[in-house]
Design a protein that fits this description.
This protein is α/β, with parallel strands linked by helices. It has helices at residues 2-24, 37-48, 66-72, 81-97, 116-121, 147-159, 174-180, 236-251, 256-263, 293-304, 326-338, 352-360, 374-384, 402-408, 415-418, 424-427; strands at residues 27-32, 54-56, 104-108, 128-131, 166-170, 186-191, 198-208, 211-221, 224-231, 274-278, 282-287, 312-317, 343-347, 368-371, 390-394. Helix 10 packs parallel to helix 11 (326-338) and helix 11 crosses helix 12 (352-360).
Length: 429
């Protein structure tokens, strides 16, 4: 009965979203990829909202029900059937009678199973597609035959692009480059390593009194150069995110310097390499939104390059939805961690492989701690911390590693504003 109700709700909301788009004809910017979609979507919105009437997907609304909700501007009703009925009624009036509507929609699009993107693109025809990255082992590969099948599913979004549409893509990603060879529409690259239309150089972490505060880099585009400066988060993946976001904005008509200035006020989303103050004079890198192998690798590399840290500690939880690739992926993270960190805390059954492999590759047994329960991991981490430590916390969302962060953050009273999954629906899980 629950599934039948969901299908009915999705069908009705999708019909309402289709009507609304036909009436108002906004520019649709659809973001896909296997890493960094939400960060990219939020960064694009931070720039466009300064110049246009823009709307973005709320949180990570990227599913068959999340995208219609974003188009209609309605909230997630979770498990409340009364609120879903209210959404349907509100959606009816918005679809048929709304007079004002955003000129630009920034939508995150994701897939969990084969056929998801085909269903979405049956009614959503973007003007611009942004592709972040296609790693060797993507998230949500569990229900696909191969990683290549995940890529093929997400590329259906490009097939749905308007004839005069544009693809903005990560030019440093070889898998994406190969896909661009078959794209008929205009393609524009961004990156850091290879020469392309929008290129980042000289990226570095900003420190104040030996504490990481944010990041800066130079961005080059057709003879113009601008310095990008974003506070509150760190990591090489965000260099790509912010470079791609500026590329989107410029292609939407925003001058380069205006786009960079708007980005300077951007507040990074919770749980994505956010810098937080920890107890005992420590620093937390909160990357607890979700985890895939490539994202964990990049987070560990960011931790490795962090200056002024007394000890570098990683709290790593299970990476979920990897299917038959799970054991190998966790072993790879353990090998990388062994040469990167001073202490390792793991949370979950799958992450035991991380601990075992880290031990095998030289991390001392005395600095490896394994837990099944996030609450216990957080409490014991709190006792372990010393002034000057930098702590990375990362896991798939099912692990709920934000609870570890809440245990060791200096200002837990602000958890609702600073951490992911703090609303009532998540708190009750």
């Amino acid at each position: 009965m629950k599934n039948i109700f969901k299908h009915i709700v999705v069908y009705i909301l999708t019909c309402e979203a289709k009507i609304l788009l036909r009436r108002h004809k906004p520019m649709i910017i659809a973001v896909t990829g296997s890493v960094g979609k939400t960060s990219m979507k939020d960064a694009i919105y931070s720039i466009l909202k300064k110049q246009y009437a823009a709307r973005k997907s709320d949180k990570s609304f990227n599913s068959d029900i999340g995208v219609p909700l974003a188009v209609l501007g309605l909230p997630n009703a979770w498990n409340n059937p009364i609120l879903w009925l209210k959404n349907i009624i509100d959606g009816f009036f918005i679809a048929l009678f709304s007079r004002e509507y955003p000129t630009h929609l920034v939508l995150e699009t994701g897939v969990d199973r084969p056929g998801d993107m085909k269903k979405l693109t049956a009614w959503l025809k973007p003007n611009m597609v942004v592709i972040t990255r296609f790693p060797d082992v993507p998230a949500h590969v569990e229900f696909f035959s191969t990683p290549e099948a995940v890529v093929a599913e997400k590329m259906i979004l490009v097939d749905a692009l308007q004839p005069d549409g544009i693809v903005i893509y990560n030019h440093d990603d070889v898998a994406i480059q190969l896909q661009m060879e078959n794209v008929r529409q205009q393609t524009i690259g961004y990156g850091r390593e290879l020469s392309t239309q929008y290129k980042a150089t000289a990226d570095e972490v900003i420190y104040h009194d030996d504490v990481p505060m944010g990041m800066t880099f130079m961005l080059e585009h057709v003879g113009e150069t601008a310095q990008v400066r974003v506070m509150g988060s760190v990591g090489l993946p965000l260099v790509y995110v912010y470079t791609g976001a500026v590329a989107v904005a410029v292609e939407c008509g925003v001058p380069l310097n205006d786009a960079v200035d708007a980005l300077s006020a951007h507040v990074p989303p919770a749980g994505r390499m956010r810098i937080l103050k920890g107890l005992k004079g420590t620093i937390i890198i909160d990357d607890t939104y979700n985890a895939s192998p490539v994202a964990v690798e990049q987070a560990l590399m960011t931790l490795k390059e962090m200056k002024h840290a007394k000890r570098k500690i990683a709290v790593l939880g299970d990476m979920l939805e990897l299917g038959r690739y799970s054991a190998t992926a966790h072993e790879r993270i353990g090998e990388l961690a062994a040469g990167t960190i001073d202490a390792l805390f793991t949370v979950g059954i799958r992450s035991r492989k991380i601990a075992e492999t880290a031990l095998e590759f030289g991390l001392d047994e005395s600095v490896i701690f394994q837990y099944e329960d996030v609450a216990k991991a957080g409490k014991e981490l709190q006792l372990y911390l010393e002034p000057g430590d930098v702590v990375l916390v990362k896991a798939s969302q099912g692990v709920r590693a934000e609870r570890v962060v809440e245990e060791v953050m200096a200002e837990p009273e602000y958890a609702a504003d600073l951490l992911v999954r703090q609303d009532t629906a998540w708190s009750n899980r």
